[in-house]
Amino acid sequence: MKSKQIIIPFIVSLLLAPLASVVAWREGGASAGGTAVKCLFALTVLVEVVALAQAISAKKLFSRGDAGYLTWTLIVAFLMIRLIAELRLITLTFNLVHVPGNIDMASPGLFFYVVWLRYLYTLSDLLFIGALVSAIRTYKMTGLTFNLEVADYIYILLVLAVPSLTYIFKSNLGSAGLITLDNYIATYRLVAVLFGGAIAALCLAVRRYASQMGGGAVARVWNAVVVAGIARDASFLTLALISRSWRPVAEFGEQYLLFVFAVCWLLAGLYQQEIVPGARKPSVMAHTKQAQGSIAGS
Amino acid sequence: MLGESTAVNLLKHYCVKMKINVEDISAKDLPDLATSMKPMLAVWLGSAGAARVSEEIAHMGGKAAAK
User: Fold this and answer.
1) 3-class secondary structure for A24-84?
2) Number of structural domains found in chain B
3) Which of A61, A147, A208, A213 should one mutate to test binding to chain B, selecting the residue with the greatest count of B CBs within 10 A?
4) Do A279 and B45 touch (CB under 8 A)?
């Protein structure tokens, strides 16, 4: 799979998804609109599966001793745990697991499944934060000058205002989403937006370092990761800001941004593999070793 | 691959390390430069990718020197 094969379908889907949602709403009302959001969610999970596979391939480019090994190990762990969390959400969204109207009346096992297992997303966010910190460390350990500018600190402050804004509008947090099974979801979303804020702030630092590279394939990888991180944070803000007044728009907006998040991770995995084409191919490695031997011998 | 600014910085960094002037770099220095850059390239590209790129740089230097 090549990144070029993804870009055009991605752009087309970015245009088609809102259009499909509007048509569904006009033709079939709230129920059809909800189905459109669920379809987008299913598509997002599918993209996340492929993104995980590509991240695993990207991780294989690094040996255990390489600085990038830790970063990509954390990315793989993050995507894997997130995917497990998504599979749980699929069972709830498509009613594969029967949940009573009042979650407090559910068995302890079901309560744990519905309320507590959603914190798998938080765990995955922690791993994402770890990956970003590791990436920043990687940039720093090259010994080249990568520094934040005043504007970056202002952007970081603005991004860190998102959790505060979400807290102000916290009453909106439980009123929309793919599933609204319980009242505990608002607490989870507040926790999630806090982690999302930290992710977005770190993404801004990575973005500055990537832009200081003056283009290039490595910067492209990290720019895709930055867009993914910001899209995730923005999805919570969308829910918090507009779910009371425009619930359908908020639900679609959240899923749309998560779709962007998933595709950006897919692109990041592909871009990393495309930096040095065929770096893992045995024939190329053999050729490299042979060439190194001849240089050393001459 | 690493971006123009990074490539320039990388070159300057290694010229300082190898105690040579950037302007004095010739094609025959490229193999040595490529070998010393390998650890830093590995940070972003992985060891295998860095070995390959370094080998390509050295090869380029070898070809240019031969001309």
Assistant:
1) HHHHHHHHHHHHHHHHHHHHHHHHHHHHHHHHHHHHCCCCCCCHHHHHHHHHHHHHHHHHH
2) 1
3) A213
4) yes
Q: Which of A82, A86, A85, A109 is nearest to A98 (CA)?
A: A109
Give the CA count within 13 Å in the CB-facing half-sphere of A137.
Answer: 12
Residue A74: per-residue pLDDT: 97
Backbone torsions φ then ψ of A71, nearest 5 degrees = -55, -50
In a domain, A292, yes or no: no
Supply the range of the domain harboring residue A156: 3-283
CA A78 to chain centre: 9
What pLDDT, in 10s, does the model give residues A135-187? 999 888 877 778 899 999 998 998 888 788 777 776 666 555 555 557 788 88
Which residues, at least 6 apart from A54, have a Cβ–Cβ distance to it below 8 Å? A1, A266, A269, A270, A273
Q: What is the ipTM of this complex?
A: 0.73
The greatest distance separating any two alpha carbons of chain A, rounded to the nearest whole angstrom, comes to: 78
- For B44, the closest of A65, A68, A284 (CB atoms) is A68
pLDDT of amino acid A297: 44
Residues of B in contact with A65 (CB under 8 A): 47
Q: What amino acid is encoded at B38 in this protein?
A: K
Q: Is residue A291 part of a domain?
A: no
Q: How far apart are the first and last CA of chain A?
A: 39
Using CB atoms, which residue from A67, A216, A280 is nearest to B6?
A: A216
CB atoms within 10 A of CB A85: 18
- CA distances, A55 to each of A69, A75, A259, A273, B34 (Å): 11, 7, 17, 9, 28
Phi, psi of A273 (to 5 degrees): -75, -25
The residue range of the domain holding B22 is: 4-66
Could you say which residues from 28 to 47 on chain B have a Cβ atom under 8 Å away from some Cβ of chain A?
A: 31, 40, 42-47
Number of structural domains, chain A? 1
Question: CA A240 from chain center: how many Å?
Answer: 19
Q: What are the percentages of helix, strand and coil residues in chain A, rounded to 5?
A: 80, 0, 20
